[in-house]
Amino acid sequence: MIVPRFADTNILLYAISSAPDESEKAKIAAALLKAPDLALSVQVFQEFYVQATRPSARDPLAPEEALNFLATLRRFPVLDLSLELFVAAAATSRRWRISYWDAAVVEAARVLGCPEVLSEDLQDGMDFGGVKVTNPFRRPEQVL
Domain residues for 108? Predict the structure, then answer.
């Protein structure tokens, strides 16, 4: 049985980036999205869609392009939003003093049975009561 790793929104955003200064991160993100052991949440899909299609993005995607990209990721487990997730994330936000949105990522990972969150946004190495954060761009050899 494969134990999934939870991918935060920044992994998806780097995977579509064509910015020269993000080329190394884009390669790492693309490799991660080819792995068989990822999990995501509807929140991550929402955040990606909003950021990837916003007019002020470097190279904004058309809404249909963003939706097509997300459709390719539905091969992974994707956690729906729920009242239980909201309550757990609110508690985690207060306990660890992190944003609600980051806490929702941590709690989605927990619900999906992911012991690891791949994220550039949370503190690398931080353990949120059994869900550990790994910045894949800091130590790519450990995650690829």
Answer: 5-138
Please state, in angstroms and as integers, the Cα–Cα distance from residue 113 to each residue in 34, 73, 91, 107, following that order.
Answer: 20, 18, 18, 10
Percentage of the chain lying above the pLDDT 70 cut: 99
Residue 142, pLDDT > 80, answer no
For tokens 């790492």, the residue is 28
Residue tagged 């249909």 (tokens): 64
> What is d(CA 125, CA 116) in angstroms, rounded to the nearest whole number?
10
What's residue 1's pLDDT? 67
The answer to whether residue 143 sits within a structural domain is no
Using alpha carbons, list the distances in angstroms from residue 62 to 69, 71, 72: 11, 14, 16
Domain total in the chain = 1
In a domain, 114, yes or no: yes
